[in-house]
Amino acid sequence: MKYQITGTTMPVLELSLDPGDKIVAESGELSWMGAGMKLHTSMAGGGGGGGLFGAVKRKIAGGSFWMTEYTTDQAGDELAFCTRVPGHIVPVTVSADNEPRIHRHGFLCAVEGVNLELAFQQKFSSGIFGGEGFRLQKLTGSGLAFIELSGELIERDLAAGQVLRAHPGHVGMFEKSVQFEITTVPGIKNKFLGGDGLFLAKMTGPGKVWLQTLPLPNLAAALTPFIAADLPQQDDN
């Protein structure tokens, strides 16, 4: 299998598959494909325990209940996935030593052998109120995966014990060595008058963190007034 990531604001992942290659993606992610590409949709794709149980865990984590597998009998057959919003596509090599945690909308696709699973954070009691930051996905198994991060991409390498706090929606991905928990914004006035929400993601090194500048909830909130303004007015007469 070969791949290239092209584009800038709205990149596309272009894959070239040979017989024996298999790509697994969430249902609905396909952009275009060659004439020889074959699709098989089921609950079992992407790991997570397989079958109904694995599908339920993926759904809780913010993923898809159904997964689609792509194979071909033709050499160099084409398959492509585009980003849904402006952002970046990041290739990650998953292994026993590298099982990244990603935000709930981050998984784009992966080769066979990579599993998409639910990853609870360490402190359940605080995380259950943390909204977007509570439901995280993790990648396990072995192979190449592609992660979609929205907006610009900022990378931070945290030293042992170094702490970084961020709005949960801005956390795109981090290494499993990073300790992650949801905390509250300090100070009563800040909590209720600051306008930045009640919760922050606290990440403690060592390990690498990928931050995204355009969380999907922020984008949706920014567009809502314009969408509402364009809706047709109901005539009461």
Walk me through the structure:
With 237 residues, the chain is mainly beta. It has one domain: Double-stranded beta-helix (4-Layer Sandwich). It is built from four helices and 19 strands.
Question: What would you say about this model in short?
Answer:
The chain has helices spanning 51-60, 124-127, 188-193, 216-230; strands at residues 2-6, 12-17, 23-26, 30-33, 37-42, 67-72, 77-82, 87-94, 101-103, 107-111, 114-119, 136-141, 143-150, 153-158, 163-166, 171-174, 179-184, 199-204, 207-212. With 237 residues, the chain is mostly beta strands.
**Bulk shape:** globular
In angstroms, what is the radius of gyration? 19 Å
Give me the number of helical elements: 4
**Which runs of at least 5 residues are low in confidence (pLDDT < 50)?**
124-133, 188-195
CATH topology: Double-stranded beta-helix
Comma- or semicolon-separated keywords:
single chain, 237 residues, mainly beta, Double-stranded beta-helix, six-stranded antiparallel β-sheet, 4 helices, 19 strands
Question: What are the SSEs and their pairings?
Answer:
Layout: E1 2-6, E2 12-17, E3 23-26, E4 30-33, E5 37-42, H1 51-60, E6 67-72, E7 77-82, E8 87-94, E9 101-103, E10 107-111, E11 114-119, H2 124-127, E12 136-141, E13 143-150, E14 153-158, E15 163-166, E16 171-174, E17 179-184, H3 188-193, E18 199-204, E19 207-212, H4 216-230
Antiparallel strand pairs: 1-2, 2-7, 3-6, 3-10, 4-7, 5-6, 8-13, 9-12, 9-16, 10-13, 11-12, 14-19, 15-18, 16-19, 17-18
